[in-house]
Each structure stands twice: as C-alpha cells, then as structure tokens.
Amino acid sequence: LVLRRRGRFARTQGRLSDAERLYASGYELALAVGDREGAAEGAIGAGNALEDEGRWAASEAWYLRALEVLEATEVVTPQRWHALLNLHVVTRSRGQVEESVDWLRRAEGVAEGLGDATARPFIQNAWGQLHMSRGDFAVAARHLQDALLSDRGARATVTIRLNLGEALLAQGRTLDAAEEVREAERVALMTGTVTKLPEVYRLLGRIASARGNPDALVLFERALEIVRERGLPALEEALTLQAYADAQAHVGDDEEAERLRGRALELYRGLGIEGERRPFADSYGGARREREGHAHDS
Fold first, then answer.
1. Angle, helices 234-250/197-210, rounded to nearest 10 degrees
2. Residue 131: what pLDDT?
3. Is the dihedral of CA 279, 281, 286, 289 positive or negative?
4. Beta bridge pairs of residue 196
5. With helix as H, strand as E and coil as C, how does the chain read?
6. Euclidean distance between CA atoms 281 and 134, whole angstroms
7. What would the pLDDT profile of 210-264 be if each residue is shown by its tens digit?
8. Neighbours of 298 (CB within 10 A)
9. How big is the CA angle at 167 (ends 161 and 170), to the nearest 5 degrees?
10. Positive or negative: CA dihedral 189, 240, 177, 12
C-alpha cells in the first residue's frame, strides 16, 4: 500500500518513471501475498504512468494484467470498470476509435451493475472524447456538461473542463471555450494540479489563435516553459509544438510552422506514435489530412 501511495504521489509530481516503478513494485508484492485488489491497483497505476507518457502499448499491457487479476475472482469491484475504461482510452488514443467502444460499454455496464455513482463523470467524459474523435462535437459537449454535474476530484474537474473547451472550440464557440479553460486554470492553480497546466495554456493559445489574438504565441511559450521546468513527458512538448505550429501557420509563418511541426513529429516518433494528435480529440494519426479536409474547424 505504501508503494502504491508513493507511486500516486510521484505521478502527481510528474515523476512518471518513478511512479511506474513504485506501482509495479506494489503490484508484485500485493500479488505475492494474495491481495488481488491491491495488485490490480498497482497494475492500473503503472498503466496510468505509462499512459501519461503516450506509451500506450506498454500501458495497455498493465491494464490487461489488472483485468486478468480482477476477473480471477467472483467479487466485482470498481477497479474492474477502472481497468476497462483505461483500455478504452489507450485504444482510442492509438486512433482505433470504433474498436475502443466495446471497452467503454463494458466499463459502463460494470459501473451500472455496481451502482457506482463515482463512475459517472469518468464515463461521461469518455463518451465526450469518443464523440469528439468522431467529429460529433455538440453531442460531445452534452456528455461533458453532464460529467460536470457529478462529484469528482480536482484533476478530473480540470480534465473535463479542458475537454469541454475543446468541444466548444471545435464548434467555433471561442468565448464559451475560453471561459471553460480559464475555470480549469483556476482549479489547477488552486489545487496544485501543475501537470495539467501545459494543456491549459496550449488550449488557451489555440483559442487565442482562432480569434486572431497575437497573445497566442505567448501562451504556447508558457506551456513549453512549464513542460521543461517541470520535466514533464515528451508527449506534452510534442502536443504543444504541434499546436504552436498550427498557430504559426495561421498567421502565415509557414517556415516556423514547419520547423515546429518537424520537432513535434520527431518527438512523436521517439515515443512510437505514428502521426500527430487529431484536431479536437485525444487520438493520434492522420492529423494533417484531417486538418486539411476540415479547414473550417481551425
């Protein structure tokens, strides 16, 4: 238990390698003494740390390990929907959007069977992201707004509001999007959820760029500064560089845009990620083709 709690703390600090190691050790020890719930928590935690780095195949292996441990007992606990939901996330993140739906439905079914009200914001957030991946932004926004009606922790609040900001931006509702992201920023700063701040400033930069605000570039620089100061994952830097490149292209600086995009793609390749993040959705691959086919979304 101590190892797992130390792993959780390391993850909140952005020390993902330490988090993975601590959670993995917690998993091994729990399994050795027959604590299946503890082992599953350790496996899910290790998967979370890898997921934060964009290492989805390795993350998936841990989630499948957790599910295997949990399904070996007749007692169904909330950890089962946790594992299933995380398998949905990593599958969708690899661009396998429709393949991810079964994992999400299974997670929702387990949570409903348990009567676990704590699942609702996470399930609704996942449906919101799924619909964004499909391009159904109005439907996505409704799921995300519903997610905000349930009790949840600070990190979940920040994540959901950022996703809602994404869905609103995709619909051209830049003022509403900015309001949601500024609220996410307030919660992140108030609760010390610093690992989410690059995403906050990255999205504020995209909103500013969409509105033709020259402050957009300053916001991307702020996001990069936090990533580098905090030693956050290369995935965060790649995401910021990709968004920064789009903003530079928007103002006509194609040379700088290509330089930034080239660096982003280099980082993605180093993580084993094929292609950029798709616009308005946490899934990857084919981003440029999609952007060119939907210029109005920019």
1. 10
2. 97
3. negative
4. none
5. CHHHHHHHHHHHCCCHHHHHHHHHHHHHHHHHCCCHHHHHHHHHHHHHHHHHCCCHHHHHHHHHHHHHHHHCCCCCCHHHHHHHHHHHHHHHHCCCCHHHHHHHHHHHHHHHHHCCHHHHHHHHHHHHHHHHHHCCHHHHHHHHHHHCCCCCCHHHHHHHHHHHHHHHHHCCCHHHHHHHHHHHHHHHHHHCCHHHHHHHHHHHHHHHHHCCCCCHHHHHHHHHHHHHHHCCCHHHHHHHHHHHHHHHHHCCCHHHHHHHHHHHHHHHHHCCCCCCECCCCCCECCHHHHHHHCHHHC
6. 9
7. 999 988 999 999 999 999 999 999 999 999 999 999 999 999 999 999 999 999 9
8. 16
9. 140
10. negative
Pair of tokens at residue 45: 């935690």
Among 27-31, 101-105, 149-153, 203-207, the minimum mean pLDDT is found in 149-153
- Token pair, residue 260, equals 């930034």
Q: What tokens appear for 253 in the block?
A: 């600086």
Residues 27, 46: Cα–Cα separation, whole Å: 9
Q: What is the token pair recorded at 288?
A: 């440029």
Nearest by Cα to 76 from 106, 54, 51: 106
**Stretch 167-193: mean pLDDT:** 97
pLDDT confidence band for 72 (50 / 70 / 90) = very high
Amino acid in the structure at residue 107? A
